[in-house]
Each structure stands twice: as C-alpha cells, then as structure tokens.
Amino acid sequence: LKEKTEDLKRERRLAEDLLHQMLPKSVAKQLRKCQKVEAENYDQVTIFFSDIVGFTSIAASCTPLQVVEMLNKLYVCFDSRIESYDVYKVETIGDAYMVVSGLPERNGTKHADEIAKMSLDLVAAVHQVIIPHMPMGKLQLRAGIHTGPCVAGVVGYKMPRYCLFGDTVNTASRMESTSLPQKIHISSATYDALLTDDAYEIEPRGEIEVKGKGKMKTYWLLGNKNYSVQN
C-alpha cells in the first residue's frame, strides 16, 4: 500500500509539472478546483516577440519533419535559457516566440530589465543552434519589445490557454515585424523603462511608420554594459 501511495504521488507530481509547463501555477490551481479564472489587469508589463528571418523560404526547402526538428532545437535552447530570468513564456506560434515579464507574478519595475537581458541572450543563442539539414546555414532572429498595460486571462474550455490582450501586445508584435535580422527593436516606452538603470547600450532608430500606429520613435537595444551573453 505504501509503494502504491508513493507511485500515485509521483504520477501526480509529473502531471502537475506538465500542467505548470502550459499554465501558470496560480491558474492551474484554480482550474483543478473547478473554479472560474478571473481575467486580471496589469498596469505595466514588458512583452517580447521574435521570429525567424526568412522562415517561409527555409520551410519550403525542408521536409515537414525537418521543420519540426529545427523549431524544436531552437525552442529547447530558448526554453532552457529563459529559466535564468523572471519571465513567463506565453506561447509559440509557428516560428514566433512570445515571452512576458511582470505577469502572472508582478515584479515591480523589473520587467523591462528582465526582458532586455533575456532578449540579448536569445539573439546571441540563436547562432549556437545547429540545424542538421542546414549545416552551413545560420538562423537569424528578429526581435521586438514593448512596455505597457495589458489584461491576462484563460480562454477556452478544451485545451485552455493563458492569453494576453491589449494594445501593448499589438505594439510589441509591431516592434518585431518592423525589426531587422539579429536586431532587438524597442519602443520609446521600453526605452524609458530601461533608462532608470543606465545599464544598456541603446541606439536611436528614429521615427518609423508602424502599421496601425502611425509614426513611432523607436530604438535598437545593442547590449548591456555590465555583462556579456556571447557564450
């Protein structure tokens, strides 16, 4: 009976660990109790988006299995690295990778700094991912970051998803889509949030036309003065 109880506890821990990989612990706890998960408003968070440059053409030249293996290698690399930062991985959609800091657990004014350090790490890490069917090729990342308010909540009953809503999400996505290869494109809101530490090398990009937003003053995040993530 004792052995069976230990086996049951072990299986329960495995199931909980798997659930916590897909949903925040606080949300998973409520769902297990069959409670309704209320949407929550966050005054300030920082959101990161990235995608692979030229992914459509890369995918067209590969078999479906090779595409899956390539993305899996990349995301396993990213997933292991973001554990070093106070961030939450929201989701992956195809070759897009979305991460947020400041929710579901609020972290004061640290969110911009955490995402900035993480983004420098991921842009450096993408060169270390070896693609078996592209031994001479190098993947390139295009990244964008924005800071602002948003709402987070669970949508759906079957395969429920923890999603973010609001203009901050849209603007962060626009920062990524208007970025350049191996560049981290940040909004003026994120720039202002990073200024408090004076720890970052940031270069003005100037005003650019952003779809649905008009002209925006944006910047390039180049590095952190206090540490290197090249290795």
Automatic annotation (TrEMBL):
EC number annotated for this UniProt entry: 4.6.1.2
Record has Magnesium as a keyword: no
Gene Ontology CC annotation, any one: plasma membrane
Signal sequence region: none
Keywords: cGMP biosynthesis, Glycoprotein, GTP-binding, Lyase, Membrane, Nucleotide-binding, Receptor, Signal, Transmembrane, Transmembrane helix
GO molecular function: adenylate cyclase activity; GTP binding; guanylate cyclase activity; peptide receptor activity
Membrane topology, record value: Single-pass type I membrane protein
Pfam families: Guanylate_cyc
InterPro entries per UniProt: A/G_cyclase (IPR001054), A/G_cyclase_CS (IPR018297), Cyclic_nucleotide_synthase (IPR050401), Nucleotide_cyclase (IPR029787)
Recorded superkingdom: Eukaryota
GO biological process, one term: intracellular signal transduction
Gene3D superfamilies listed in its UniProt record: 6.10.250.780, Nucleotide cyclase (3.30.70.1230)
Residue intervals of the Guanylate cyclase domain: 46-176
Family: Belongs to the adenylyl cyclase class-4/guanylyl cyclase family.
Protein name (Swiss-Prot/TrEMBL): guanylate cyclase
Protein's organism: Eurypyga helias
Species classification: Eukaryota, Metazoa, Chordata, Craniata, Vertebrata
